[in-house]
Amino acid sequence: MRLLGLLFTTSLVxxxxxxxxxxxxxxxxxxxxxxxxxxTDKLTVVKTIKVGQRPRGIGLTKDGKHIMVCxxxxxxxxxxxxxxxxxxxxxxxxxxxELFAQDPEGKILYVANEDNNMVTIIDIERRVPLGEVQVxxxxxxxxxxPDGKLLVNTSxxxxxxxxxxxxxxxxxxNVLVDARPRYxxxxxxGSEVWVSSEIGGTVAVIDPKKFEIxxxxxxxxxxxxxxxxxxxxxxxxxxxxxxxVALGPANRVAVVNAATYAVEKYLLVGQRVWQMAFTPDExxxxxxxxxxxxxxxxxxxxxxxxxxxxxxxxxxGVAISQQ
Amino acid sequence: xxxxxxxxxALLVMSSAGFAADPTEVKVGYLRHxxxxxxxxxxxxxxxxxxxxxxxxxxxxxxTTGRFLNQRFSLxxxxxxxxxxxxxxxxxxxxxxxxxxxxxxxxxxxxxxADAVRPRGAIMFNAGALDDRLREEDCRANVFxxxxxxxxxxDGLAQYFAWKQWxxxxxxxGSHPADKLYGDALRRAAHRFGIRIVAEKVFEDTGGARxxxxxxxxxxxxxxxxxxxAPAYDVLVAADESDVFAAYLPxxxxxxxxxxxxxxxxxxxxxxxxxxxxxxxxQNRFMARFSRRMTALDMQAWSAVRMIGEAASRTRSGDTKxxxxxxxxxxxxxxxxxxxxxxxxxxxLQLRQPILLADGRTIVSVSPQEGFLHQVSELDTLGFDxxxxxxxxN
Lengths: 323, 394
Description:
The structure holds two protein chains of two kinds. Chain A is mainly beta. Chain A contains one helix and 28 strands. In chain A, a hairpin with a 6-residue loop joins β16 and β17. The N and C termini of chain A lie far apart (about 45 Å). The relative contact order of chain B is 0.15. In chain B, β6 (about 170-175), α6 (about 175-190) and β7 form a beta-alpha-beta unit. In chain B, the strands form four sheets. In chain B, strands 2-1-3-4-5 form a five-stranded parallel beta sheet, sandwiched between helices. By secondary structure, chain B is of the alpha/beta class.
């Protein structure tokens, strides 16, 4: 009887999760050349949009009117109308764009060009390039401080986080991290930037004032070989208390206490989990599972995986509408 | 006028104080013994800068990183022929202050060179020789190996066929010493992974030209007859490093069977078709710089020079001993577009690496295969493992 009660409680928690307002989650499917649109209320795919070649990095303009998606093999960022789902234009991203960061006003886009060791700066409204910054080999991860003053770019073969002053567009510091840094994420208060190293298997917590590594977070999953633990995407809650780290072929998302840096839990998701995004109310976290062609939906409060949703082939990035 | 000069002098002082000290110079040598090689396939003739280009690409990558750390990397290419003495060439490099030497040498020359430069504190990175003995009974404490061994390649292939359940092999081995060594590695791999060699034949190299105008007519008849009468088998595996016959086997066997080993499905450290795990970027930047595709030897040399760069950036040093110590230590890992970190087998200084299985157009699979487990690293299911090693480093 007690067991039954326990079962009821568990299912209740799972059943309760998706009662958020309906936001739209946009998933870039690297192999299908599509974007899957998910209604986060119904948790089903409501639309599939055909885009250019090899869509990866994805985001929304601050006004919510456009989806921006890097189509690397077409050397462009496509703009898609969020009402009609039509491609309405492209941004001059430079060659092979992969990820980007947007300034707080939503006017400027900073794009990592993996093929030529550059960060390209674009005026979103006028759709023209404003300049370039030379960085290390294979730039990828892009993070912008909440005040928009400091840009972090990670270079995969140079193994550094480059800190760029967005005003002068000069590199002000380089912090050496573990092998193949993939992603950079600031805390909302700007006190820390977290950088994941895919091959090194760690997350470096960097003080963006001193440009020093405060803490290196390591992961260990019983029965899982070290090489399979490959951190990529990072999501930190607005209150700065909890972080989620996608661990790639380990098929797990680590839940990290962002104050003590202790890894508290590993959530089993789909295969080769990479990127993630919160719903604006932070009730749900959606993560992309490349190899299993689905996304996992995590209930943030209960730290449970509540649903898997089939999307296109090799889902890569995810962005969620703010209204 | 004088005032102006003073200002200029002050500026000079300021600017030199503003910059850090002179950059740390890291000189890398590339010592290669180039033998003219004729291949069966016209499109597989090795480029003149095979290997060297990979080393140069890594020097560029190291310098991009070095820009941020005030380190500068340079490469000196020394090419020797049949009549040149590799020991003298290496000694001259050391004389010029180069104690980090990437090598593409035959096994015997590799050993001699390593022993000769060791008292001078030089270390070497074997990017070319596949010989297992260089990591086993003939291993040296000052030689790292980025080239995979024949046993690693053979095990990578055998694991895939074990997974595929193509467990009956017809083995054909060439008559040259290198072919025999590869044949040995394939036999060992078959035994390890439960594959039965149901027939074995030697293909004698009787000399003659690789390519002749009407050769195709003869080959079309010769290969079916050569492979006729074998017991039932799943795949024909050829050991032909000398490139005498294997390329002639696909589509010409008596039975309608696939070919692997030195033709057909080939185990390798790199292939121009490999684009996974960021390899696409590597291939693009290589093509842009050298106007040709990247070979396995290029990748092995790239890995060697990147190991040096990685150690230099982690230790903030250009000192040869400091670099060698770091590479041998527990914190060393190299990212080389293979989907996982490459680490060092510190018992014989071999770089652990996945093995690609390439068919000339695509990557068919990457070994180790799922399910082949190991208590330390699944990469150690490829090649000779620690408990069986004959290597004694001292």
